[in-house]
Amino acid sequence: MRSVCTLAPSVVITITMLEAETIQRVYMRVLQLLFSFRPECHYTVPLSENVQYPMLYEWVTPIMSVYMRMCQFLPLCHVYDFSLNDLLNPKVKRTITILSAIQNFLHFRKQRLEMAAAHQQSFRSDMDRLQAYTREIKEAEKKIEKLTTIPPEQQAEAKELAAALAELTTNTQHEYQDVNAMNEKVAQCKTEIAEISQKLTQRKLDVATLKDEISKLKSQIVESPEELKNEMEKMKENVKSIKLSKELADERLVELQMLVQCASQVEAEIQVLLKQLQDLQSSMCKTNQQKEEVQRLAAMNEALQKELKSLSTEEGQMKRALAMKLDKESKQQIRRQKKKEVKDQQVKNIYGQYDKIHQKREEFVKIIEESNRETKQFREKMQKLREKCSQHTQKAQEIYDRLLTTLEQYNKRIESIVVETNADTLKMKSHF
Description:
Blueprint: H1 2-5, H2 9-17, H3 20-35, H4 60-73, H5 85-88, H6 92-148, H7 152-220, H8 225-431
Helix pairs in contact: 3-4, 6-8, 7-8
């Protein structure tokens, strides 16, 4: 096929040497390559079985089949004037134009097949991507549902945990309030203890100063015993009052120590609650991370949906382009159908002419049969005449043989008479 379609100068020379049968085989090969129409299919007679003289169709059938197929095919190559003369009596320039048109169609067909394969490949890749994206979107939606929905076996536990967490938050709020109140009380106690310690130090300083003053006064003044007694009583009263104040301060200090111990216990409980709150905070962080992951998956889902929308728009564009192509193909098919109808009409006309020719041929066959009968009769007459002639020739031969024998006898007699006359003349000459 390639050696036929590539019209090199050597091919132009070889085309001049081609016969009609080789060009018919070339066209059969082209039809086989393009439409997978095997060459032996051209030789099947498309008529009824009971056909008189089928040997008359053996030569006409393949030529008419190739002619019809080429009339259907060559308009695709923009060759509209293909005739039977191109098959029966091909010319060089005409065959070159037809083969070049077939070559151009083959190149165009190859390019279109490559473009269609590329479009089909891109469409398949887009469809694969779309399926992958839809699969990933479904998986993301399932993950979001898994993350957002609590399983039924854990719903009761989750409700209990939520209730416990609410109770813990209320308890921690109340305990925070109690702790704040206790801290305020402890701060007040500490301020009171600091004031009392300051007063004690002040009293101790006063006592020390008084003792110094007493010692100084003792050294300086010699007092009377009554005054000493009065001063001693005053001093005793002061000491009693100081002791009472000291006891009161000690009681107050014990109370404050008890309050401090209670505050330390409360601090320990607060630390335990803080640990629980830290655990709750870690769980809340995990839930926040899960929420962030859910948001990220939702954003991913939105991006995938946007990409899916873009792919759907591309698919719509591809479908519209495919619809346009199908519309063009349908229009071309309608044109081809019209051309085919025209060609079928032409073929019907040709078949009508062919039927007329067939009828004429049958008339000629009848005439030939009549002439054959006449020839047979004439041959029988000739045979009879020949037999008669042979008989006459035999008789003539016999007569001829008899005549020859009689002539020979006559000649012999004449010769004997001549010899005798010669002898007589010699005798007469010798005598004279």
